[in-house]
Amino acid sequence: MLTTPPWSGQWVADRLGIGLHGDGLHDLLGLALRRNPKRAHLLVSNVLGKHVPQRPGTVYGHARDLGLRVRALLGEQEADRAVVVGYAETATGLGHAVADGVGAVPYLHSTRREVPGMASGGAFQEEHSHATGHLLLPEDPALLAGSGPLVLVDDEFSTGQTVLNTVRDLHRRHPRERYVVVALTDMRSSADHARLTGFAAQLGARVDILALASGTVTLPEGVLTRAQALVASCTAEDAEDAEDTTAAAPAAPAARIDLGWPAGTPDGGRHGFLPEHRARLEGALPAMGARIAAALPPTARRVLVLGNEELMYAPLRLAQALEAHSGVEAYFSTTTRSPVLAVDDPGYAIRSRLVFPAHDDPADTGSRERYAYNVAGGGFDAVVSVVDSAGDTPALHAPGGLLAQLAAHTETVLLAVVPCYRPNGNPGPMSAPTRPLRGPAFGSYAPDEVGWLLKDLSDVPLEAPTEEREEAIQSGGAHYAESLPVEYQPSAEYQQLFKAALATSAERIARAVGAVTELVLAERGPDAVLVSLARAGTPVGVLMRRWAKHAHGLDLPHYAVSIVRGRGIDRTALSWLAAHHDPADAVFVDGWTGKGAITRELADAMADFPGFRPEIAVLADPGGCVSTYGTRDDFLIPSACLNSTVSGLVSRTVLRADLIGPGDFHGAKFYRDLAGADVSALFLDTVAAAFGTVGDGVAEDVKSLRSQDRSPTWAGWAAVERISEEYGIGDINLVKPGVGETTRVLLRRVPWKILAQRGAGADLDHVRLLAAQRGVPVEETDGLPYSCVGLIHPRYTRGATGTDGKAVSSL
């Protein structure tokens, strides 16, 4: 015989005497106890998709039907002039679906996430909430300035105070004649009804109320104190099984799903969601549902699509699309900030909870705990976690993080990241990443070798032939970092030179790597964080990391960041590093020094980041520009011979206003199509293979270096100034000293001539070959502190760049 399950508020009703009165309320609502000193109980909706997993069609259908009722109430003409506003965090998806029912109208939801540079279009308080402050941040301030009806949507009305606070603030800014207030349930008392009626009369505006169900809540005297005592006592019998402890890291990371999110479409209504955005999303949903379905194992029949705090509407629609495409039994719910007691009892609405740290770097001072309710024990074959790119941080993936907690309760965890919409900037898939890019998704290095603090511009056409590129720089005053040279494709002869040079110099490089790494560890300790300057510094950073592992068993973190002459270091990357590591542990790494321009650029940039040390560790310092180095010899480092094919297939970095906006990392491209020519691993493995034979030499070098005065001499800078004057160039930035910089001139620029130290041997074989291929004369000379120097003449090149990276005026 089938038994009727108990009402999911019975446990609370029996113990505290709290009651719900009204037709249909027990079907829509359950009860739970808050961990909140302001209110004892929580009305837990069964159709909202927040605390209780529900079928997406049920969640969306109830909300959209409310929107259709609003349209009928207003009439076609007024409904088409309406703006819909939902409340964070619980009603962001509800409000959005209501807007769908109202018609082709704009939607905005309040937010608790501060967005730098955004002016507030409204602010109000939700007194009873665990997080009281709300902001309205429309991209277009005119969105709230119209005279049409304003539709306010919340999941429930308990007292109506939040609505009063909202209308008071918005009416003061932009008075209007009509408001419609919408909720799933209206639980106000008669006094609260009267208060809202009087408030509307005082404003001189009409305020209508629409709800799925109405009723009242009875709260016995002293219920708050009794509820707090009950919560405190429910730690053993009732709540022990429901309180999740920190989960270990999952055996494998969550598989990522590339949603194919439509470019230019906001992730939700935080900054406004317009009818054209809705049309774009509707068109893309079937394909996104198919992508999720394809990523699920064939045995997954019961699947939860889990949204994230304010990100409710996009995951809800994705759950619908998944169900429509595959026929799986899809459910939808969302993580939350709201702390609620969990009790594993069928008469209680919150039967389990997962606890994990916030992973979107919240700016507020509230609790850093977040929760997912009724997921554990839900019997889900798979969980698809949907977060926005601001929430895709190391905390999400860490042991004890959301993904680890989910993995403890389901066979399959998938991760889908919706790109954050950036107001007044570049929306869509190229929104700012909040975690490092790693191979094999970006670059050919292994994922633990380096994290690229860069924005992926792989699909953006940025290359131009060298002459055309320099012409564009000169004619428009553009910066060299706004475009990329066409990647040099080495001839068979040049590739053979590279391999020969690598075989000859591997031990020499290994010895320099060991020496500079030992100096870094001696000066910074075992907590050093390697921060290589992309991209020449990155192979060296990987080798230093390998040496630390080889010699000391250390696993040093390693990131690659961009620095651009005339523009400075990537400030977003530094902010990210400061948020995730002690800035004092950061060690900047480059391959070699030329005249020291980047060294000075870094020092200037550090003025705004006092926790970082403005010092660079390099493999070779022929220019005498730094104090931490492996050698001051100017010798061939084979990684200088090639571009991306020896640097993880990553391009030089890009900084262009239409591609890189506020909050973005600098950009770069991953040249997947060059995989057949990639020698990045060959270079690293060949050098690392020599580690075992150079230990004694490294020890000698370190002893010698530590006993020397290693202060920068800037001898290279003085030599460059002399050469610039002697050859009538007039700008030191057109003089590129050293083997590495000369190689770059020949690969990327339009060189004038090459100066070679008389008697320089095989270290310059590749330079001579490149010069011959490009018809550039090589002039032997004496008295150079470098093996060679590359010269660019502004009267020969059309766009040689100057100190700020832009064109130099004619001599």
Number of strands: 34
Helix content: 25-40%
Helical region count?
Answer: 22
Shape: elongated
Main β-sheet description? 6 strands, parallel
Strand order of the largest sheet: 19-24-23-27-28-29
Calculate the terminal CA-CA distance, rounded to whole Å.
98 Å
The CATH class name of the largest domain reads: Alpha Beta
Cα Rg: 31 Å
CATH topology of the largest domain: Rossmann fold
**If you average the pLDDT, what whole number results?**
86
Number of domains: 4
- Strand percentage, roughly? 15-25%
**What structural category do the secondary elements indicate?**
alpha/beta
Q: Supply the CATH architecture of the largest domain.
A: 3-Layer(aba) Sandwich
Stretches where pLDDT is under 50 for at least 5 consecutive residues are 127-132, 238-246, 426-433, 472-477, 796-811
Quick take:
This is PELOTA RNA binding domain-containing protein. The protein is built from 22 helices and 34 strands.
Secondary-structure blueprint:
Layout: H1 10-16, E1 19-21, H2 25-28, E2 29-33, E3 41-45, H3 56-74, H4 76-79, E4 83-86, H5 92-102, E5 107-109, E6 122-125, E7 133-136, E8 150-157, H6 161-173, E9 178-186, H7 190-203, E10 206-214, E11 216-218, H8 223-233, E12 255-257, H9 275-295, E13 302-308, H10 313-326, E14 329-335, E15 353-357, E16 369-373, E17 382-388, H11 394-397, H12 402-407, E18 412-418, E19 451-452, E20 455-456, E21 463-464, H13 466-476, E22 484-485, H14 492-524, E23 529-533, H15 537-552, E24 558-561, E25 563-564, E26 568-569, H16 571-580, E27 586-592, H17 597-605, E28 616-620, E29 628-631, E30 667-668, H18 680-689, H19 695-707, H20 715-726, E31 735-737, H21 738-748, E32 753-757, H22 765-774, E33 778-781, E34 788-791
